[in-house]
Write a structure and sequence with these properties.
The complex is a heterodimer of chains A (392) and B (208).
Chain A: H1 3-13, H2 15-49, E1 55-59, H3 63-70, E2 81-82, H4 83-91, E3 95-107, E4 110-114, H5 117-122, E5 127-130, E6 138-141, H6 143-149, E7 156-161, E8 169-180, E9 191-193, H7 195-206, E10 214-215, E11 217-222, H8 227-236, E12 241-244, H9 246-299, H10 304-344, H11 357-372, H12 374-381, H13 385-391
Parallel strand pairs in A: 4-9, 6-8
Antiparallel strand pairs in A: 1-11, 1-12, 2-10, 3-4, 3-7, 3-11, 5-8, 6-9, 7-8
Chain B: E1 2-9, E2 17-19, E3 22-24, E4 29-33, H1 40-47, E5 55-60, E6 63-64, H2 70-80, E7 81-84, H3 96-106, H4 113-122, H5 138-150, E8 156-160, H6 168-184, E9 188-193, E10 204-207
Parallel strand pairs in B: 4-9, 4-10, 7-8, 8-9
Antiparallel strand pairs in B: 1-2, 1-3, 1-5, 5-6
Helix pairs in contact in B: 3-5, 4-5, 5-6
The chains are: A alpha+beta (392), B alpha/beta (208).
Chain lengths: 392, 208
């Protein structure tokens, strides 16, 4: 027998009160952990996908839409820009790398991206199988796109117009010539083909002249930090072009989403405080009933400090159970959410990852539980043994 | 063993309770008799170091209790005194065995299952060690309370109205068991009671 087993045996004798406190604390901790995991992983993923890209250049419209469509392939692009404008950018002395992309079609929810090999190289994506495309209507699948579709090298598929699955199918079929290894970047979810393929498919019904060819966005890497000061303004002054900074737009996106995240965080904090209150009420209301038990322990030689420690110990055991359950629950929910999001082809989320902030959450939740026990513990400390026993 | 001189105690604004001078030798068995409210419980609590008297000298087992404070007094009580209370006050959520183990733990004595079994066996409740107090009869609970009071081999056993809730046969048995257990551990025994049924049990009596 020790303080912990003594505390635990008392908690076992009151399963309902114990369960209420533990569950409230667990829900609060789980909510915060889930937020930490989802937000943290989304931020990391977005940073990774935007690494090395200082600017997205595309048609005039919303800069956030431009970023979402051009880098993350989450939104539809606003329109196209002339190929000549993209070629002019590539020659600009402030620009080290300019990767033009032609978007517009998809296959089973995976974007078909017309780009040259520089795009795959930018994300360090390497071939796992087959070769890179050389002719129009050849395609290379990202790792996830390949796994989900079940098609390998030699397979064929028809792209659909637009980004949903409802678009009209194009008549010409792509032939898969290669599959990429997993790169843990946006490339995994994409289907890559040459820009010429995209042009060929769309010229069928439009027949434009060669000089009117278009691309959708150009991903730009600066040659020097100085470019940040002048280049965006310079591009935005051209009537048909718009430049969006991923760093700035991501920050703006998170500040908008952040209101919702803050609200959830506040809700979780309320849950944790409610758990603290529940610990307080459970211990405090039981004091009257336990007066004799506590006085008895004094007659057996327990010091007042021991009784104080006993009640704090009970709160600690409660909180520890709540925190452990909350961590499990948070990671479990993140895994469930991840499985669901994977089917929706959004960003991947995993529950099999720990974040350092979770230590803080655990510490604070434990602290709240223990602090809630201080007043009841103090009353136990002050038990007047003789008077309590004389009344019994 | 026990020496009490000039003792009086005042609860709040009430009139002070005066207690007679009293000496007890090691191994003696005493009954403290008197009606309710005469100070029997107060005297026992003073002897156990649970109450500090307003005035007077108290020496128990060679210690001047007025000089012991705080944690040292608690330690002294845990190792020197075994207490049996009127309302049994076993810890409800602990088994019989754990109630005795609690006494060993709080006295910082080794947690010795063999001694617990031996003590329970001597009181005829050895078979009940895994039970909760609520599963025991009143008489059995009182036996467990006695077992817990003697498990640490105290020099002094104090019992406050130990027979109040018991029938005639059990009342006599409990007093006999207390005497027997005190003798077994060489302890001095002081039983406070107003129970006429047990008045004749011991030769030494203190009338309050």
């Amino acid at each position: 027998m020790n303080l912990a087993t003594l505390s635990a045996s008392y908690l076992r004798a009151r399963p309902l009160n114990t369960a209420l406190s533990v569950i409230l604390l667990a829900l609060g901790v789980a909510t915060i952990v889930l937020l930490l995991l989802v937000v943290g992983q989304a931020e990391e993923r977005m940073q990774r996908d935007a690494r090395g890209i200082d600017l997205v250049v595309g048609a005039k419209g919303s800069p956030m839409q431009l970023m979402l469509a051009g880098i993350y392939h989450l939104d539809a692009p606003a329109g196209n820009i002339p190929l000549t404008a993209a070629q002019a950018l590539a020659k600009h002395r402030f620009i080290r790398k300019a990767i033009p992309l032609a978007l517009g079609d998809s296959w089973k929810g995976h974007r078909i991206v017309g780009a040259d090999k520089a795009y795959a190289d930018h994300y360090g994506a390497e071939l796992r199988e087959g070769r890179f495309y050389q002719k129009p209507m050849e395609a290379v699948l990202g790792a996830e796109a390949a796994a989900r579709s079940g098609i390998g090298v030699g397979g064929t598929f028809k792209g659909a117009h637009g980004l949903g699955s409802e678009g009209d199918e194009h008549e010409d079929a792509y032939t898969v010539v290669g599959v990429l290894a997993r790169s843990n970047s946006v490339i995994d979810r994409l289907v890559l083909t040459s820009i010429e393929s995209v042009w060929q498919l769309h010229e069928e019904h439009q027949q434009p002249k060669a000089e009117a060819r278009e691309v959708t966005v150009v991903l730009v890497q600066y040659a020097s930090p100085l470019a940040a000061a002048t280049l965006p303004r310079q591009i935005n002054s051209q009537s048909e072009l718009q430049a969006a900074s991923p760093a700035y737009e991501t920050a703006r996106l998170f500040s908008i989403v952040g209101v919702g995240i803050d609200a959830l965080r506040g809700f979780a904090a309320v849950l944790i405080l409610a758990a603290g209150l529940s610990v307080f009420i459970a211990l405090y209301s039981a004091l009257e009933e336990r007066r004799y038990e506590l006085a008895l322990m004094r007659t057996l030689g327990a010091s007042p400090g021991k009784l104080f420690g006993l009640l704090i110990g009970e709160a600690f055991v409660l909180s520890l159970l709540g925190v452990a359950l909350g961590l499990l629950l948070g990671h479990g929910l993140a895994s469930l959410l991840g499985a669901w999001l994977e089917r929706q082809q959004h960003y991947p989320v995993t529950g099999l990852e720990w974040r350092p902030e979770e230590l803080w959450v655990a510490g604070i939740a434990l602290g709240v539980g223990v602090v809630a026990a201080i007043v009841p513990a103090w009353r136990a400390y002050r038990t007047d043994v003789s008077r309590t026993l004389a009344q019994g | 063993m026990i020496s009490v001189r000039g003792l009086s105690h005042r609860y709040g604004a009430a009139e002070a309770l005066r207690l007679p001078d009293w000496r007890v030798a090691q191994g003696e068995r005493w009954l403290v008799l008197g009606p309710s409210g005469c100070g029997k419980t107060t005297l026992l609590h003073v002897l156990a170091g649970l109450v500090r008297p307003s005035e007077g000298q108290v020496e128990v087992a060679g210690e001047n209790l007025l000089k012991l404070e705080g944690a040292r007094l608690d330690r002294w009580r845990a190792t020197t005194v075994g207490i049996v209370l009127q309302a049994l006050h076993l810890v409800k959520h602990l088994s019989v065995r754990d109630n005795l183990r609690l006494a060993q733990y709080l006295a910082k004595a080794p947690q010795d299952d063999a001694r617990i079994d031996d003590t329970l066996g001597a009181l005829g409740v050895g078979a009940k060690s895994a039970r909760r107090p609520s599963e025991l009869s009143q008489g059995e609970q009182q036996r467990v309370a006695i077992a817990r009071a003697v498990v640490n081999r105290p020099k002094l056993v104090l019992a406050d109205e130990p027979t109040a809730n018991l029938d005639d046969a059990s009342a006599a048995t409990v007093i006999d068991l207390l005497a027997e257990q005190a003798a077994r551990h060489g302890a001095t025994l002081v039983v406070a009671t107003h129970d006429a049924r047990v008045k004749g049990k011991f030769r030494e009596r203190l009338e309050l």
